[in-house]
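Project outcomes to date are best conveyed with an example. Our students and postdoctoral researchers have been running inverse folding experiments weekly, and each run begins with a structure described purely in tokens. The record below, which covers 205 residues, was selected by the lab manager from last quarter's runs and is presented without edits.
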């Protein structure tokens, strides 16, 4: 999302995080960063397959992801933690219900169109598509909305992703998200509140 920090502005002309600085080269947008790193460091083929059709399937999911999973899953965190933290006011429960309904629809498509009866999104091995999906889907979990509980197919997919990444690394990577509710106890600088509250509200629309 947008960042008001001077450092982010130097790395990304869009003033957004995440952003990558590799020597004199800078890059914004998480998907572009993941693809760049996978190519630069010649990661194992399953992450971004050399097979043209499997690679196209990864690309297809990444394109779909932004307007569907990403359009809904992070909003649970904004509604339950971030916006109340910066505005001092809880949002109506109807707002969360609306987001959860949109997310439920996206998860149904995710299971039926992309996951189907496969172990991972692109067959029998984990790929960048699974990595991008799981990071987004852990955000509702972090604020107490367990989207995996009543979805056995999705739950088993998550377990396979955990095993493929390694459970220790998986939970280390999601530690901040899973403990996001602890932010409710911190004190926010009033000037920062004034700057970020309207930005967060705008992102929720």
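After processing, the design step wrote out the following sequence:
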């Amino acid at each position: 999302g947008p960042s008001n920090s001077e450092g982010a502005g130097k790395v990304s002309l869009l003033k957004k995080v995440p952003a990558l600085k590799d020597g004199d080269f800078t890059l914004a947008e998480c998907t572009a960063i993941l693809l760049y790193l996978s190519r630069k460091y010649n990661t194992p083929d399953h992450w971004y397959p050399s097979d043209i059709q499997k690679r196209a399937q990864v690309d297809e999911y990444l394109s779909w992801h932004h307007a569907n999973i990403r359009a809904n899953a992070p909003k649970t965190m904004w509604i339950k933690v971030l916006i109340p933290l910066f505005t001092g006011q809880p949002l109506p429960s109807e707002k969360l219900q609306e987001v959860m309904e949109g997310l439920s629809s996206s998860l149904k498509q995710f299971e039926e169109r992309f996951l189907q009866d496969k172990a991972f999104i692109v067959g029998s091995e984990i790929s960048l598509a699974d990595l991008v999906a799981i990071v987004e889907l852990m955000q509702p979990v972090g604020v107490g909305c367990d989207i995996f509980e009543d979805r056995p197919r999705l739950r088993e997919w998550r377990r396979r992703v955990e095993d493929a990444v390694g459970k220790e690394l998986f939970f280390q990577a999601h530690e901040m998200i899973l403990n996001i509710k602890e932010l409710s106890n911190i004190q926010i600088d009033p000037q920062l509140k004034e700057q970020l509250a309207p930005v967060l509200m705008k992102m929720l629309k």
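The first strand starts at residue 19 and ends at 22. DSSP finds ten helices and two strands in the chain. The training component of this project remains on track.
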